Amino acid sequence: MNPLLEQFLQEARENLAFIDQNIENIPNGDKELLNSVFRAAHTLKGGSGIVGFEGVKVITHHAEDLLDQLRAGKLAFNADIEAGLYDAFDEVVNLIEAAEESEDVVEADETRTAMIVERLNGLMGKSQEVAAWNNPMVALPESMSVTNEDLPFLATCSKPIPFVMADVTEDNFNEERLYGVFLDLDENCMLFGNDPIYALSLLGDKVLYLSTCLSAENAHKVLDGSSEDELLAYKTTIIAYIYASMKILKKPYITLLMICFLSLWTW
User: What is the Cα 101 distance to its own chain's centre?
Assistant: First the structure.
């Protein structure tokens, strides 16, 4: 079994056991307990995203949203919410058990997952989402802020795409393109187990070039930290140039902000 998946499954078991033991105690008004249940769900979602366990990620994402609304006082805990949460996390347990048995990530039953998501959304008062093409790209105000670097690898990229956002369609979105991906990392990113460098490494040779920026203060913090937490607490930005399709980009389930299409004639 993949060591990363094995570690995730072990931690998932621990988090699911904690959630199962404490959902029924949420009505007691213990805010710290509710926060702990929320953090356990958040950890499940993040870990499932890293290992590519989409079924677990989708369910825990919506369960986490519901728990967050309870934390914010936007919802009052009731029997329906309790049953909905138990049902959602029971399905996550089923997926974890299937992965343990197969020693690999398994595909969730789409119909079952959709029913759970619809139920959780209903408990939050959300309307059912309608599947539709929605361009997830956001263009930078000035393209030169990305395209002003001397990048010799461009000679190997022979397939230009439109820079005009209006020209991006559902069809050409899934073809291999050159993307400039900008990551503005919060200083606590690594502390919460979100490792962007590892996530990018899952793309292998699809990542053509990386450009990073780290302040002198944060560089010293990384080099001179006296504890593990201090070593992991730093703020930086990364620009990754990736030649791949969106389908491939989604494989490792990297949470990236795609901000710009790059076409060869803009260089």
Answer: 25
Q: How far apart are CA 3 and CA 34, in angstroms?
A: 31
pLDDT of the chain, 267 residues: tens digit per residue: 788 888 899 999 999 999 999 999 998 888 899 999 999 999 999 888 888 899 999 999 999 999 999 998 999 999 999 999 999 999 999 999 999 999 999 999 989 999 999 999 999 987 554 445 555 555 555 554 455 556 666 666 555 544 555 666 766 667 777 777 767 666 666 665 566 777 777 777 888 777 777 666 666 665 555 445 555 556 677 777 877 776 666 554 444 434 333 433 333
What CATH class has 3-123? mainly alpha
* Strand 258-261, strand 236-244: pairing: unpaired
Q: What is the pTM of this model?
A: 0.53
Location of each CATH 1.20.120.160 domain in the chain: 3-123
